[in-house]
Each structure stands twice: as structure tokens, then as C-alpha cells.
Amino acid sequence: MKDLLLKKAKTMLVAMTAVALMAPMQSCDDDDDDIYYPGGVIYNALVTVKPLDGGKQFYMQLDDYTTVQAINITESPYKDKEVRALANISATDMQSDTYDHLVQLNWIDSIRTKDAVPYKMEGYGDDPVEIVNDWTTIAEDGYLTLRFRTLWGRHSNIAHEVNLMLSGDETNPYVVTFYHDAHGDAGTEYGDGMVAFKINDLLPDTNGETVELTVKWNSFSGEKEHKFKYCSRQTTVPFKPGTGGRLDILRLK
User: Which of 28, 30, 50, 176 is deepest in the core (most CB within 10 A)?
Assistant: First the structure.
């Protein structure tokens, strides 16, 4: 059964001020607004939460290479599930023999995380949608994470559905299409949602090289596409001390 992206995602994952669609953009829409959560906490990291020992332990991946472990939480808040999440973390002076950094995890909220789908003749809905060009829209650690914008019904409880489908083109397998199905929701207000698609298991291994990943979608002004830099997931744990990344890669606004 196809997974449904509930409408509540637009309030859980983004600031819900009405925003105007930036149609002149050729690829992604720009959005530089700071996004705060209840209590005034702003997220400063987009991570992959990776469980160990069935979720009794976990670590977080900041990008393709940098790993961190929380010193204040032992068990994964998502049990044995690997998910993408927005988080607020703080650096510490503590050292680790396994991970690049030990951090204080102040706040975390998972993003809708699902698998991309192989190419099929039938589509998954063709309702217009925009991909927002901010730091949370990125291909990393075997995932394509997208912040998207579309019309939502103010008083509707209809669930929207999003999917990512491979092109089926053997000559260029690094082409995917982002589909949005509003399921008949008569949207009247623009709002955002976030979703992370696992693509590492379906796309060919890049063998450590960085390639272009082309994402296509049906926007409010017609068909669009954008090219992302993509490298297949790298093995990052166990980590060899002295070769890891720096904590200043945190994507602070």
C-alpha cells in the first residue's frame, strides 16, 4: 500500500506562514526564512539517525562522511528504524574513539522517510508542486531529502501523497521524478512539507565518485528539473580517529 503524507506534516515540519510561490525560478524555489519550532528552538542539523543493537544505541550522520553521537541520550528515539530527522545539537569538548564528534542533542524530530520506487508505467499523481531551494533540500548519505511547497486546503483533512520514481533509463540511471498526488484536495493556501527518500539501494553504486542526480517534477509553471551532486553511501563507522569531518559543517542559518 502506498504511504500517505499526512497534511499535518506542513505544520510539524515548517513554519506555517502563508508564502507566495516563486514561479520565475528555473529549478528550485528559494526560501531563506529561519524556521522555528515550538519553544523558539531552531534546528541546526539535518541528520540520519542510525540505530545500533536494535535501537539500544544510535549515532547520527551529518553528511556523507561526518558522524556524531549524543552524550545525553543512549537509546534511539525511533527504536530500530533508520530515519532522517531535523535536530538541534550543541558541540562538546569530549572526544570519541569511534565517532567524529560527541554532541548534546537538544531537540530532534523525524522527517517522513520512505523508499524511492522502481520505474513503473503507471504514475503516482501529477498535481503541481515546487521543490524549495534551501539547505534541507539535499542528496546525501544515500537519501534525497526534499522540502516541497504546494497548495493545501485550509479546512481539509485529505492526505497528500508524494513519491520518488526512478526513470528506468539504463543509459542514465541517475534520473528520478518527484510525484505529488493531492487526492482531490482543493488547495487554497501554500504550505511546505518535508520528505526523505532512500535512493542508495536502487541507484547504481557511484564507487566513491560524485555524479549528477537529475530530479524532475511538475511545477505550477510546467515541468522543471534540478541537478544534485550525489555519491553513494559511504561506510563511516567504525571511524578511524584523525580522519573525520569537522563540526562546523553544521548547516547553521
Answer: 176
83 — pLDDT class (breaks 50, 70, 90): very high
Among 72, 68, 71, 65, which residue's Cα sits nearest to residue 101? 68
Strand partners, 227: 214
Residues 6+ apart with CB under 8 A from 83: 48, 49, 110, 111, 113, 196
Torsion angles phi and psi, residue 128, rounded to 5: -65, 150
Q: Cα separation of 62 and 65, whole Å?
A: 7
Rounded Cα distance, 135 and 114, in Å: 20
Nearest of 84, 56, 222, 192 to residue 144 by alpha carbon: 84
172-215 per-position pLDDT tens digit: 999 999 999 999 998 899 999 999 999 999 999 999 999 999 99
Distance from C-alpha of 164 to C-alpha of 120, rounded to nearest angstrom: 11
Sign of torsion over alpha carbons 15, 16, 21, 26: positive
pTM: 0.81
Rounded CA gap, 173 and 251, in Å?
Answer: 29
Mapped to the 3 state alphabet, what secondary structure does 112-170 carry?
EEEECECCCCCCCCECCCEEEECCCCEEECCEEEEEEEEEECCCCCCCEEEEEEECCCC
Separation CA 219–CA 233 (nearest Å): 29
Cell numbers given for 237: 563507522
- Tell me: the pLDDT tens digits for 30-66? 444 444 444 556 899 999 999 999 999 999 999 998 9
